[in-house]
Amino acid sequence: xxxxxxxxxxxxxxxxxxxxxxxxxxxxxxxxxxxxxxxxxxxxxxxxxxxxxxxxxxxxxxxxxxxxxxxxxxxxxxxxxxxxxxxxxxxxxxxxxxxxxxxxxxxxxxxxxxxxxxxxxxxxxxxxxxxxxxxxxxxxxxxxxxxxxxxxxxxxxxxxxxxxxxxxxxxxxxxxxxxxxxxxxxxxxxxxxxxxxxxxxxxxxxxxxxxxxxxxxxxxxxxxxxxxxxxxxxxxxxxxxxxxxxxxxxxxxxxxxxxxxxxxxxxxxxxxxxxxxxxxxxxxxxxxxxxxxxxxxxxxxxxxxxxxxxxxxxxxxxxxxxxxxxxxxxxxxxxxxxxxxxxxxxxxxxxxxxxxxxxxxxxxxxxxxxxxxxxxxxxxxxxxxxxxxxxxxxxxxxxxxxxxxxxxxxxxxxxxxxxxxxxxxxxxxxxxxxxxxxxxxxxxxxxxxxxxxxxxxxxxxxxxxxxxxxxxxxxxxxxxxxxxxxxxxxxxxxxxxxxxxxxxxxxxxxxxxxxxxxxxxxxxxxxxxxxxxxxxxxxxxxxxxxxxxxxxxxxxxxxxxxxxxxxxxxxxxxxxxxxxxxxxxxxxxxxxxxxxxxxxxxxxxxxxxxxxxxxxxxxxxxxxxxxxxxxxxxxxxxxxxxxxxxxxxxxxxxxxxxxxxxxxxxxxxxxxxxxxxxxxxxxxxxxxxxxxxxxxxxxxxxxxxxxxxxxxxxxxxxxxxxxxxxxxxxxxxxxxxxxxxxxxxxxxxxxxxxxxxxxxxxxxxxxxxxxxxxxxxxx
Length: 779
Fold this sequence. Notes:
alpha+beta
């Protein structure tokens, strides 16, 4: 499948990361990475005019004016979605006749002081009836009209007088005081911005609910707290509608039911179209009247919360984990959602495409959405009209698996069938290391308390990254190719990685001493960089293990990749060297559940330091134009939804153009990208220190042949840590908007406060020159 058609699923990587440290490159040549991984390749000698080695640079001064920029970003986010500032109490309903009049009264306070309900930006009041099992209505029913305020009592009154039967918008209102249901009031004040998907970035949301008749005994099968893993806290639908009132789980999703009627007709047919027939979806976005009655019936659905949430996350959003990981939203309630009664076509269609489609260009597959299509999942002879529970269930008369056996509710890559996380129970640790004669010996082991897990079956990949000076970047990245190992006169992908080694394989700089019973010992020869060790450029190395473990069903399991810093001079571990910058357990994994399972491989979890061992400053971002492969630039751009490989997108193709537009308009799920603490350790997101972070290489702009865009002809450049890291978000935003002039001004601004050196034909030499000059001031 072409890379551009995967952008909506590939761009869910990792977490916002601002690294505050760097490393210097060795004398070995380095150029921007290849399509998948950074490669150092042989190049012809550049002409004298193309060499940029002698360009003088001064250090960045960004920290002078912007030293607390990260804190200001976070402070701006913290002004949004403030819980409990505006409160609504004493919500009451009254109905009178002649004329039929609905009266709603309530009190509203802000920071404890009474305010007029008319003074806030938006108030909505709705009624929905409850049948005992579902919330239903002919349509969303508003109860709000003209509002007045009595300052003496602090009561706001909404008075809705029924229109004449022949008037436009006439609704026959009746007394709902005795009808089981909910009166829902919600709204917002001080909206500072909006995002796609109808998200309002409001400072002060508010809500209240009044039960009518005998009330409701509804208990949601989902948890609003699950939404908060990826979204705002408290979770606010559309940026301001509370999913949970007064922090009471018993009210989960009550407010949502005012609009998401269980018998309502769904209006987002494009969700299913995106996966069922992308070409038809592209046409539908241009003209939503093109569907035939048969197609409208095929894609019709009810506006239940299950349908709206499942479909949007499975089909529209770049959801960063498996939809089979039901526990994310349904923790503690899997027995309810996976009951056999829910094994039906409506449930299956909410996540699965029915038929799917395939598009080919010659022998190349452009897209294929048939993999988990129901037509390929249902047994032969069954169709969407079949009653699954005829055969499936847990009763004695059933002979096919129960729903909770088909779906356990846990992603099988991350969890056992009973909900034990593999990374908690299969633990790999780096136990000891020693350094002598430019060789480092590493011993590590694995343990597990899970039945059926044989830790000796782990296939480990060991890496050694060489830190430059006292920075936290790598002068020698383990994933690089820096030596002509096969002696063919060029450094290519046929040569070995610098210091990355799959245990048991052949490698010119690594050997396996022992591998038995879940314990391993390997030796790395770092003689190629003995001069860097001798002159103090390299004082420390990072030792890491990526443990690949495949179960009996062929599933690669999500395990954490451990790493430890080793001080070469002290010949001992220095576990205090790397101060945490990014939160993984309560950051990355809040959205991703297990890091790297949806965009790399499951053996890379739990540790952003290991991510940084490949994502180094020395390479430009190949998939991401005008970014660095360095994790700070790369992940900021990814979470700003800059598209991968824009040069491969055929904008003349409606499907490819649709996916591109869809992707770049996806908002950061926290409903503002300035929530630095959603990913970072508190205080670890200001302008990076130049003493601790290296200059880096930004890739050139891609050449786009099928779109006459404004941004073009931007060369590869070497920039400082702040331009690389902080600029990652700012560049991505302007690239997505195709604001070439603004991008030029941004680059000029960062150049005036730092440096921006064209890499030229010899990118490695230019980078080396800049690093030498800058680090001479700090090392």
